[in-house]
Amino acid sequence: MPVDSTHEEYQDALPQWERCRNTYSGSDAVKSKGATYLPELESHSSAEYVAYRMRALFYNAMRATVKGLAGAVFHKPLSVEVPELIEPMLADVTQSSVPLEAYALKTTDEVLQVGRVGLLAEMPVATDGEAGRPYLCSYRAEDIVNWRTERIGGERVLTRVVLLESESAVDPKDAFAYVTAQRYRVLMLDADGFYRVEIWRPKSKANKTWMLDEVIEPARLGARVPFIPFVFIPGIDVTPPPLLDLCDANLSHYRNSADYQNAMHYTGQPSVWISGAAANDDGDGFDLGAGTATMLPPEGKMGILQADGKNAEGLRNLLKDTEGQMATLGARMLEQQAPHQETAHAVRMRHAGEHATLRTITVAVEVGLSMALRYLAWWAGANGADGEVLPDAALELNKDFFGMTMTAEDLKALMLLWQSGGMAWETFYHNMQKGNLTRPDVDAEEERREISVEGDLLPLGG
């Protein structure tokens, strides 16, 4: 099987990913696809179709929804616990000046867009006796072209991942230009069960045949690695993009907009009609408009023909209906879920298709990023506890998507209830936290102690 072979799930999902990606990218990307998203009318010439497409309005609900949902997750700082060894790395987890929070935001954005992203914990090969530090790489769903799993020791183990990459180099013929070529990076477990990386490059400029150009056998502390440090979010199996229905509704709105704008273009332009009169002597017709006069014979008539546009009213109502449907599809992602602990498998199952909500997506991103941080810490030299291969690391994202700042009246009512003995201090403080009126990482007991030290500035009970 050639290195550029693709997984059957990849082949099925690629059109969906491309549709979601183009819709998110906006008007230029959608309109550049021409008849793929906006079929020509039977009566159109090439020039008429270009004008028809140009008049259409692309109302980008997809991007607004993704940005809004991601903003709901990151309106509060993330929480992270990692071995002390890699804490300095969190300010730049990619070796390209991207801090962990920005990396987590981009990862969440990718999962919301297409429902899939891959993270690789990479350790550069030592050069000149100096080993670099580990870092994280992200791969889009479209660039994870193939993968394989096997049952080893009763567990499903990732044994191969094929990644499509691009590399740029200075053009040997022009020092101010760059040439870009594709290559494949194959992550695999070899016959002995150790991690191996292969780099395949094109044999010819046509890029139709490939050759194995480089082999890397990563090692940690002098020992070969027994696993592939790659994470799929939400999981190895492909699931439909969570906003696919919204994407399709957005493209339907674009097509309806084209019909509406087309109808208004033709019905909104008046046409002059003349009967009982001949053309001018030069045969070019009549001169009309300000500063001109049209001479008609006694039996001649002239008028203006203009449609009232009522036929387009149905199209306008259809646009409004579709906008309402898009709003509903976006809001559906915010449905509340029961706040209980779940296994990683349960998260992946509930993330799939129509069962996905912003909460399940957030948990899936948490699980994936936490695993990537464990790989990062392991590469750096941290050891797992109790004989585990990987050290502990955990990342937690905000799931309180409906948090609101407490008003003065709300605060007054809570204070009176607490002071009267109708509410415990812990309950009062919990409500203060929900209302964004407390300091980060300060719990009720610590707040009580500090109040006491400051001289009981506030009563500590009824």
Structural account:
With 462 residues, the protein is of the alpha+beta class. Among the domains are: 270-305, no CATH class; 408-453, no CATH class. Helices cover 37% and strands 20% of the residues. It is built from twelve helices and 14 strands. The protein has helices at residues 8-25, 27-32, 46-55, 61-73, 100-114, 244-267, 313-332, 344-351, 358-380, 408-419, 425-434, 444-453, and strands spanning 79-81, 117-122, 135-140, 144-152, 155-171, 174-189, 195-202, 210-216, 219-220, 223-224, 230-233, 271-275, 301-305, 394-396. A five-stranded antiparallel sheet has the order 4-5-6-7-8, with no helix packed on it. It has a three-stranded antiparallel sheet with strand order 3-2-11. A two-stranded antiparallel sheet has the order 1-14. A hairpin with a 7-residue loop joins strand 7 (195-202) and strand 8 (210-216). The longest helix is centred in the middle third of the chain and has 24 residues, at 244-267. It is flat and about 105 Å long. The chain starts with 7 loop residues before the first helix and ends in a 9-residue tail after the last helix. Residues 336-340, 344-354 and 455-462 have low confidence and may be disordered.
